[in-house]
From TrEMBL:
One Gene Ontology term of the molecular function aspect: endopeptidase activity
GO biological process: CAAX-box protein maturation; proteolysis
Organism: Microlunatus antarcticus
InterPro entries per UniProt: Rce1/LyrA-like_dom (IPR003675)
Tagged with keyword DNA-binding: no
Protein name: Membrane protease YdiL (CAAX protease family)
One Pfam family named in its UniProt record: Rce1-like
Coiled coil (UniProt feature): none
Keywords: Hydrolase, Membrane, Protease, Transmembrane, Transmembrane helix
Transmembrane segments: 41-65, 85-106, 127-151, 163-180, 201-219, 225-242, 249-267, 287-305
Amino acid sequence: MTYPVPYGPPPVLAQRDPMPVEPVAYPQMLRTPRATWGRGVLMIVCFVLSYLLVSTVLQGAAIGFDVYRGATSLDDVLAMRLDLTPALLLSVNLSNVAAIPLSMVLQRAFFGQRGRWLSSVTGRFRWGVLARGALVALPFWAAYLVITLVFAPESVKVPSGTYVALLVIVVLTTPFQAAGEEYGARGLITRGAGSWCASPRLALLVGTVLSGAVFTLAHGAGDPWLIAFYFFFAVVLSLITWRTGGLEVAVLLHAANNLVAFGSLVLLQQDTASVFDRGAGSAGPAVLLPGVILLLSAGALWLWASRAGLQRTYVPEHAAPAALDPASTYVGPWDQAVR
């Protein structure tokens, strides 16, 4: 059913509508007639607590399994001297994968909006956008992998034993792990924060800062270089999500970064215990390289998205025809431009 443009849906139906009643960008997809401060806050808190619970259970089980089979000792566990075993890596990745259904369930529970709308403003995960974006971005990350392997102090070795298992887990689960972090941080948290703001610009700013802060804290870094890198990483992915109208490109960049980082670690067969060392002095200017690669690949994707005319705005069925034009500027009842 459609309604005259000047009037919109009847007030009673509008109050029950889980979708925005005017064109909005990705961060404001939960700015609906149901939106309240309380809903957004509780949804974010529930997500964080649920994620911590799932992570604790899965990673605790993996550590217990490693202690049982003798891969690590109880003393090492109590002293937090953990090595990156296949069981632990798998549990960490699955914890993040669980963020995908968790985010969708919480969005539906608090805002009544189906999980598919978390993927993009079109209500689906746009595989074509992912595939075309990969052609643009992956050459940058391939170059980063080559640079890492060629100029690393250690020489590349043929993985064997435990490292084969680690490499298989990295290849098979890391893309989904990266997707889970994006659905949670750039998806649910950004939208929860965006639901508080009438201004599209303020929604983008608040969503970016809050999701970036949670993302950075979740990585438990104590080194200034790492803290800056994680927050910069989060900000870039938030902006590219807003620019493309969905999570596809953010998932692509996150997966590429993690695959190169973990893949090179396995191929160089360094001390995998260093993976969990994020304290002061654990990093340095070397993090500038992935930061530059991220910026270059995101910049290339930004230009590509502009030329490809990707849909970056959700358009309700009752919206004016001009709102369907991605080049137009829609001014709604809050007197704020969506773009």
